[in-house]
Task: structure prediction
Amino acid sequence: MGKDLSKVLIPEDELQAKIKELAARIDEDYEGRDLLIVGVLKGAVMAMADLARALHVPVQMDWMAVSSYGAGTKSSGVVRVLKDLDTDIAGRHVLVVEDIIDSGLTLSWLMQNLKSRNPASVEICTVLRKPDAIKVPIDVRYVGFDIPNEFVIGYGLDYAEKYRNLPFIGTLAPHVYGAS
Ligand code: PRP
Ligand code: MN
Ligand code: MG
Result:
């Protein structure tokens, strides 16, 4: 494991402290309201689990699974819904939880999709954001960390479906995805 990592970008204690900080802001903003938090599978699983436990406002949890497809392996902005919400969000306060905003294409599509269902409100909470990778402007209410445009893993984030279970955010050593 150690040899696959080039460095720890955000250690576990900083990550957990940030989640608690975001939860405190969310508690304040949604006081007296029922909140539906929506996790985007699979990357948002850790953030959802930790955030939900740190919140004091009453929450329901739901999940969406989406897949970007198109020419490359990276997000194309054309999104297919693999698993839709179980919840009717009309009139509900919705908070979408993500592990990372990279190009922003996934969330840009998702926000349009969710807004068309007439929720009372819909906001975004993301653990990470890469300002240098963004392709489409997105209005994000809660951001954990702005990070450099590097390949990051851990805390839900994968490389080829691995490393999601790391409790911290790290960057992958080039030999893992490069030659030799
Ligand atoms: C990753 C990440 C975000 C999205 C961000 O998900 O979890 O959902 O990409 O990229 P974007 O801002 O460029 O659209 P991925 O599609 O890898 O699926 P996963 O969550 O199952 O890993
Ligand atoms: Mn994802
Ligand atoms: Mg992924």
Observations:
- The chain is about 25% helix and 30% strand.
